[in-house]
Amino acid sequence: MFDYLAEELQKMFKDHDYTSIIKLAHKELNQEISNIDKKNYYFVLAKAHYFLGENKQAFENIKEAIEILELHQFPQKEVFDVKIEYAKILRRIGEKNQSMEIYSKLLELHESSLNDDTRAIIYHNLANLHMEQGNFEESKKLFQMALSIDQIYKNEEGQAHTFSSLGGLHFYLGEYDEAINYYFKSLNLRKQTKDILGEATVSLNLGSIYANQLNEELANEFLIKAEDVFKEIDHEKGIHSVLNTRARLNYSLKKYDQVIINLEYLETKEKEDITRAHISLIGIFAEALIKEKQIIKTRNMINLGIDGIHRLTQGKFVEMLPDYGKLKQMLSQVAVVQNKLDEALEILNELEEIGDEIKDKRSLIAIYHSKAQIYLRLGNHKQATAFAEQGRDLAVKYKDSAIVELLDLLFEIYLLQGDYRECIKVLKNISRYVQVKNKQRYSLILRTFHLLENIKLKNIKDEFSVLLNFSEIERSLHILQETLHNILNFSSTEKKEEILEQMSVRIKKDTKEINSENEDEPPLEDVINVLSTDSKKLGELSLIDLLTLLDSIFFSIKYEYISKKYLQKINWAEKLPVDFQFIIKQKQLVLIELLQRNLNPVNVASGNQLLEQKFNQMFTRMSVKITEFQDKISEENLLILLYLISSIVINT
Questions:
Q1: Does 551 map to a domain?
Q2: How far is Cα 337 from Cα 643, in angstroms, rounded to an integer?
Q3: DSSP H helices in 314-359
Q4: What's the number of CA atoms in the CB half-sphere (13 Å) around residue 355?
Q5: Burial bucket for residue 297 (CB in 10 Å: 0-12, 13-18, 19+)
Q6: Which domain holds residue 564?
Q7: CA atoms of 436 and 644, how far apart (whole Å)
Q8: What is the CATH number of the domain that holds 38?
Q9: Number of structural domains, the chain?
Q10: Rounded distance, CA 390 to CA 392, Å?
């Protein structure tokens, strides 16, 4: 501690009684006191406000202390202390270059006169600055230099600070295990030195790590410890930091009502109170309010954030463009919800101009997407299509994840226009960008059936009232059954041949390379014979492996590598897990019908011939067994089956 300060002040600092320090200092500064005492009281005021996170007051008081230093002579140690505190406060308010310049000059001009304790503090603070500027190796080196000095002199307080900062560095780099290790080292030392504020700060940092890992239980354990101390010493910034961390955790867990509770303190802020750190929190708060449909509050918070950005950047909001753009984008969403579509378009036009100026293509994708949605709502399909296509083209060029959403929007526009040919093109494009196990596959399947509903093929048109009572799965399968029946029943012989050929080509295209030339691999007949007799080996295969194997058998028969009996006589279903059985059986039936077409074209004839009958029977059986089917099959395996079938529909 600073031995030149009054004992009363030293005790207050040790007890973290910053409110009493501030009261005492103001009381003394209203008296006639010496320049030495004035400097000291401004100095302690700056430190107390700094510890409480009150940066503006800290800066004002340290400037007063600096002015007194420049007019009078003081011991060198006191000069160093004030300048180090000044540099710390400058860093806190964002003046990082000026802060680094002060530390560098102290080392350069006073290297020989700095004691080891002061040198360790400067190394530590410089390390923090380098870390914030992305110079991680230099930061680590300086932290280790500070730590070495503190360990030589057994300075536990200094070691605790440096361990905590090393934890912060590894936290920033995403190296959570290392960060946790350093934080616990710091926590143990702070307990030994009875540094309750430091203990609370480290607990807050540990809570933040566990929140990032979505470990709600551990996050709350440490956040509660931190919050209790912050409340005890009336540390408003610490209390808000706990609430902010909880808000980010709850936002990740989609507990939007809790986010609102965590951040409701922001509603009491004026634009003059808003810091850069508040802006991202306002964004989270506004998003949670939108989710909870609290639209008026959302607009108020967004406007507070935008006003704060204008004040912080003195109107040059480009300095905080990502935050400004995000808030403006949300404001356009609020305007849409409030049916203020002209206002929404005006906001988006402003953002489009900025995006064009700074060539931010990814922002433009989001803007075009939003404008297309608004024009669709206004019934202006031409403009909606134009902006959706602009967004789609940019998303494809820059491999942006919004591509599927934009294609989905185009599908909706084309569907409303009755342009089913374009709908099919869009569905084909969507299928390129989503994975088999991805939930988006299920959306793709439902879009397929949505399209078929709108086309209103014969025998579906009059059944809409019945379909409305079905579940999505039941409706999809029912429509599919009728669709395939109609595709075959109302097509010419030539069209039937073309459809079935496309089916087999599609299946062949989706199948992995078969009949490998690798001599080490057993012949396909041997693989089938082993699986047919060994249920254990059969049960070890995944559903995708089984479906691929069936395709391999199909093409091997087609190209006369093996006998057709291997497909017709296989009876695997009873040996498989329950939720595989139905899929494998249906896949096998589809392949047998395709095989029939490939080997016996004569069977494809006009009228009610074998092929149409068997397809119709197959899907009739599917419809009859649908209740049993839904009970026994997992959602993931249902997805695979529906995708196999919808792929055929899309490509025919």
A1: yes
A2: 35
A3: 321-337, 341-358
A4: 20
A5: middle
A6: 438-650
A7: 9
A8: 1.25.40
A9: 3
A10: 5
**Are 80 and 201 members of one domain?**
no
Please tell me whether residues 646 and 527 are part of one structural domain.
Answer: yes
Region of poorest pLDDT, from 130-134, 178-182, 207-211, 388-392: 130-134
The alpha-carbon radius of gyration of the chain (Å, integer) is 35
- In the predicted model, what is the mean pLDDT of residues 301-311? 93
Residue 611 vs residues 54, 202, 568, 582: alpha-carbon distances, Å: 81, 73, 16, 21
Q: Does residue 482 lie within any of the structural domains?
A: yes
Q: What is the pLDDT of residues 498-540, one digit of tens each?
A: 544 554 454 444 443 333 334 455 666 777 777 777 777 777 7
What's the CA dihedral at 347, 349, 355, 358 to 10 degrees?
A: -100
Choose one of 88, 115, 149: the last residue of a domain: 88
* Helices 116-132 + 156-172 axis angle, to 10: 10
Shared domain check, 625 and 479: yes
329 domain residue, yes or no: no
pLDDT digit string, tens, across residues 552-589: 676 667 656 677 777 665 666 667 777 667 667 766 76
The reported pLDDT for the residue numbered 408 is 83
Tokens representing 33 are 């006191």
Per residue in 579-599, pLDDT (tens digit) is: 667 667 766 766 666 566 544
**Phi and psi, residue 459, nearest 5°:** 80, -5
Give the whole-angstrom CA distance, residue 652 versus residue 647: 9
> pTM for the whole thing?
0.60
Statement to judge: residues 205 and 84 lie in one domain: no
Return the structure tokens found at 647.
């792929």
Residue 224 has pLDDT above 80, yes or no: yes
With 50 as the cut, is the pLDDT of residue 628 above it?
Answer: no
Q: Which are the contacts of 537, defined by CB distance < 8 A and separation ≥ 6?
A: 530, 531
Whether 204 and 77 share a structural domain: no
Residue 360, amino acid: D
Residues 466 and 597 in one domain: yes
Query: How far is 546 from 541, CA to CA, in rounded Å?
Result: 6
